[in-house]
Amino acid sequence: MSESAYEIAALTMRFWFTALMVFLLWRIIRAVLRDYSAQRTAKKADTGYSLGVLEVVAPKADGRGRPHPLYGRRFALKRENRIGRAGSSDIRIKHSGIAPHQASIFQKGNRVLLSDYGGKKGVYLNGERIEEDTPLVDGDEIAVGGVEFVLHLLTAGQTARPERRAIEDDGEFENPVEYADSDEYDADSDEYDADEPGDGRGEPYDWTDFVREGGEAEKAQYDGEYDEYEPDDSQGAPQKRHIRRWRR
Amino acid sequence: MKKGKTGGLMSLIIIFELSAFGLLAFRDGAVDTNAFIAAGILFLVLAGSYALLTAAFKHLDGFLLVIVYTLLAVGMVVQYRINPDIAFKQLLSIAIGVAAMAFIMIFLRKLERINNTKLCTIVMVGSVLFLALPLAIGSEQGGAKNWIDLGFFSLQPGELIKITLIYALAVYLSERTKLKKLIPVGVFVLLLMVLLIAEKDLGAALIYAGVIIAMYYAATGNVWVTVAGIGAGAGAAVISYELFSHVRVRVAAWRNPWASYYDGGYQIAQGLMAIASGGLFGLGLNLGTPKVIPAYHTDYIFAVICEEMGIIVGLCVIALYVLFLVRGMSISMGSADRFSALIALGCTVYIALQAFVILGGILKLIPLTGVTLPFVSYGGSSVLTGLVAVALLQVVAAQNGRRREGETGF
């Protein structure tokens, strides 16, 4: 190529190189800024984090036909929620059919799972008793010990977990599967509510009793129950007993 | 780090280097096939390593890699324009550096493994000996005796020891902050500084001082000692001004390069004239006169970039170093433990400080100091050290990413 031809080419390509570099720089800046703001939002999402809501849909009425105090109650779900009668439960339900440590709804990776702690009565998902940790979807019906819930998942299938700093780990998250074989659900343990009549577990509870409305068994169920039912405002207070660190 | 985000940026880099080399291939009468060979090898090294690293490491900081690769590409283009032989040498250094980077990222997944005092002591002793080597068997260059000529290529220990300095400081500062317990690393630092001054490598001494002060302040937050350290640095600068004649020449040249034009001011004056004559878009590749500037392919390469590709491109290069600083700081702040955070901080400060020192000197903001522009300047040790620093930053970034995803291993 002759010298003047090269000169023309080089002179023209000046603008090309400049434009290319500016474009490249602009794309880098934009991507870095977007990445930064995404991290900030992820950090913010961590504080008010909620898997969803667990809503009580049954029992609807008590033995006398009045609306059951439990009916319609909604429990906000954290990353891990232990359901049971025990005071340390995240979702504490003082219902005679429910064991102190009955079940758990927890997040693992990008799934939400339902776990049975091994109570006598079992945990039922959409009518079927679960044997192992089962994934949950929005709208699932969960039944434990006479109480039925409907699950409203807010963040089903979230793939990116918000940033958590290891030093702020307060031990709230433990692997509930470790409790599957635990003997914490002890029939004779004194974690039962002392105000309950008898040994606190009421009549032996049969799942099918629930279907019969106004039946004798049901009446016996509720007679002692709703008098003692008090608004439970211990929900949301982080319970830290029996904590094992979640292995990250 | 989604590959889609940074993959597009990599293609832009490749387009840039291919078009630039393509243009340079036609600068003389006959077609210069070496230009295409150089472009091809650079493409393989950059694009290949990018593909491999992003595939192998899920939490790689792609932006950091893109920034560094852009700078490497710009440097390669300008160096080929200046002298094809040194361009191929630089290509070799880049290849070695990228391989070292991959090696470090593969085998050093947990930084904690090297955080122990025994290893640190060995490293410190070795570093002092290595830095003393040029005094014994080195060759003098431009008044400074900081090189070792090994025939085919030359080594500059002053550059390579920066990494061990960062490492030693991080090991000690992460656990103890009382001055008494920092005595071993304090002695180490003192020995290094003495050796650098003996070798008359004051530019490196300046960078070392900056890194030390930054890491110390980040680790301890002790304002008074930091200010005292800066004061000591300033005092040392004044003393060196009194002691060394070439420091006086440099300061005089900085204040008025045209008064001492035929002496010390020539370099700065030529650099300023080159930048100015480039204008916004430059004179055009291969159409400038870079060879009248002393050290045109090492320290003063930025002036050549501005002369031939314009001030806008020059500003882009400066912005890239700023982005490097920002990215490195966010990696450092995202670390969970002090050791990783300090390592990341040290590497970031080293690159950013060195860039700003030489850019400031070229633009006559501060007196000129003999340091290289990281990744852009010609210099095997400079490129290698820079890429090792990037490797350490990537290791910390990978740790952060893994922690954030809640995986085990950290």
Please describe the topology of this protein.
The complex is a heterodimer of chains A (248) and B (410).
Chain A: H1 3-47, E1 52-58, E2 74-77, E3 80-84, E4 91-92, E5 103-108, E6 111-116, E7 123-125, E8 128-129, E9 134-135, E10 141-144, E11 147-153, H2 216-223, H3 225-228
Parallel strand pairs in A: 3-4
Antiparallel strand pairs in A: 1-2, 1-11, 3-5, 5-6, 6-9, 7-8, 7-10, 10-11
Chain B: H1 3-24, H2 33-56, H3 62-82, H4 84-107, H5 117-137, E1 139-141, E2 144-149, E3 154-155, H6 157-173, H7 183-198, H8 202-220, H9 223-243, H10 245-255, H11 265-278, H12 301-309, H13 311-333, H14 338-362, H15 380-404
Helix pairs in contact in B: 1-2, 1-3, 2-3, 2-4, 3-4, 3-13, 4-15, 5-6, 5-7, 6-8, 6-14, 6-15, 7-8, 8-9, 8-14, 9-10, 11-12, 12-13, 13-14, 14-15
Provide a descriptive summary of the structure in words.
The complex is a heterodimer of chains A (248) and B (410). In chain A, the strands form two sheets. Chain A has a six-stranded antiparallel beta sheet with strand order 2-1-11-10-7-8, with no helix packed on it. In chain A, strands 4-3-5-6-9 form a five-stranded mixed beta sheet, with no helix packed on it. Chain A is an alpha+beta fold. Helix content of chain A is 23%, strand content 19%. Helices cover 71% and strands 3% of the residues of chain B. Chain B has a three-stranded antiparallel beta sheet with strand order 1-2-3, covered by helices on one side. In chain B, a hairpin with a 4-residue loop joins strand 2 and strand 3 (154-155). The longest helix of chain B is centred in the last third of the chain and has 25 residues, at 338-362. Chain B is globular and about 65 Å long. The mean pLDDT of chain B is 88. Chain A binds chain B through residues 1-2, 6-7, 9-11, 13-18, 20-25, 27-29, 31-32, 35-36, 160-161, 163-167, 247-248, and chain B through 5-6, 8-9, 12-13, 15-16, 19-20, 23, 26-27, 29, 63, 66-67, 70, 74, 280-287, 309-310, 312-313, 316, 319-320, 323, 326-327, 330, 336, 403-408, 410.
